[in-house]
Amino acid sequence: MERLQTPEDRFFQDLMGGCAEVRQAFSRHVGMNGHRLQTLMRLWRNGETSHSDLRHTLAIDGASVTRLIKEFEAEGLVSRRIDPEDNRYTLAGLTPRGERTAAGLARAHQDYQVRLLDGVTAEERETVLRVLGRLRANVARIPSEQE
């Protein structure tokens, strides 16, 4: 028996699907997978960052972070060094070439966003932002099963 989709199901399916579609489309647009793109942009925004912080922020395992950073290092985009305050950690930072690459990606992302919003009025944007704000507030009020 097929379950009928409720209006709530459709709303969240379209919301989440739309977000994923937009994110994946930009990755395809610039020819870089999502984790590579997120890592470069995170380093560009935050500066030198530990592998551990990248692992937590990007929600990927340590081996994947190390592999990404080593790939970027081989491409001349990232340099690594031991954290002088705690030698258990490795810090990764963008090289000048990495800075230029990330800045170019940021400009491409800005242009991409402008193109995505073509035909969407300021009023429509504000409506979406109000709805998202209300959803976030509702999430904060709903107790988790663990509480």
From TrEMBL:
Domain HTH marR-type: 1-137
Keywords of this entry: DNA-binding, Transcription, Transcription regulation
Keyword DNA-binding: yes
Pfam families cross-referenced by the UniProt entry: MarR
Domain of life of the source: Bacteria
Cited SMART domains: HTH_MARR
Protein name (database record): HTH marR-type domain-containing protein
